[in-house]
Design brief:
Number of domains: 1
CATH superfamily: MetI-like
Pfam family, one: BPD_transp_1
Oligomer: single chain
Protein name: Ectoine/hydroxyectoine ABC transporter permease subunit EhuD
Main location: membrane
CATH class: Mainly Alpha
Subcellular location: Cell inner membrane; Cell membrane
CATH topology: MetI-like fold
Membrane topology: Multi-pass membrane protein
Number of helices: 9
Distance between the termini: 63 Å
Helix content: over 70%
Length: about 220
């Protein structure tokens, strides 16, 4: 019997040995997801408000940015930020570039979610607030957004889970996230079954946990 045939299909000892390396990659994945989503929800709200602005030039500019980002692949945008942007003199670390790419890409989708939420608030709400001399900013902050945000939390949560599953694309710009860490570990021993299986289980467990959390938050807000 050959040595290859005598090896077990899944070596639990090797899986335990490679787990710390994968956890280091997971820390990078979680960091990129949290920072990217924070940027996405913030920039997405700004783009949504710009698209609803009475100034047509501002609204058209926001719509153009949103459609361009939504219509081009995330991987291409990451390559542009990592390889082309430094030519202009602006350069970030690989992780910062990945966070920026994820945040901008998903901000375009979040902007459309925000816009749907804002448009779901009856027009009479803002008219009544302005009639009470609340001012546009206070009307938006205290009247419109508290009614617009709760219904769209599940949709924003879905994009959070989607961003988490898109983080392996960051390996294309040299970020050692979870999947890339498993590939590096596997290349050292030419055993990929254990690290890739663990990565799949980690993504599955965290995605299910995040989806459950989003449903709980959505139910509480409703």
């Amino acid at each position: 019997m050959s040595a290859a045939a005598s090896q077990p299909l899944f070596d639990w000892g090797y899986a335990r040995a490679v787990l710390p390396t994968l956890l280091d990659g997971l820390a990078i994945t979680v960091q990129a997801t949290l920072l990217g989503m924070a940027l996405a929800v913030t920039l997405g709200l700004v783009l949504a408000l710009m698209r609803r602005a009475p100034l047509r030039l501002l609204a058209w500019g926001a719509a153009l940015v949103i459609e361009f980002v939504r219509s081009t692949p995330l991987l291409m945008q990451l390559f542009f930020l990592f390889y082309v942007l430094p030519v202009t003199g602006v350069q970030f670390s690989p992780l910062a570039t990945g966070v920026l790419g994820l945040g901008v890409h998903y901000a375009a989708y979040c902007a459309e979610v925000y816009r749907a939420g804002l448009e779901s608030v009856p027009r009479g709400q803002s008219d009544a607030a302005l009639a009470l001399n609340l001012g546009r900013w206070r009307t938006l902050r205290d009247v419109i957004l508290p009614q617009a945000i709760p219904p769209i939390v599940p949709a924003l949560g879905n994009y959070f889970v989607a961003m988490f599953k898109d983080t392996p694309l960051l390996s294309a710009i040299t970020v050692v996230e979870l999947l890339q860490a498993s590939k590096i570990a596997g290349s050292a021993t030419f055993r990929y079954t254990e690290p890739l299986t663990l990565v799949g289980l980690i993504f599955l467990a965290l995605s299910l946990a995040a989806a459950w959390g989003v449903r709980r938050v959505g139910a509480r807000l409703r």
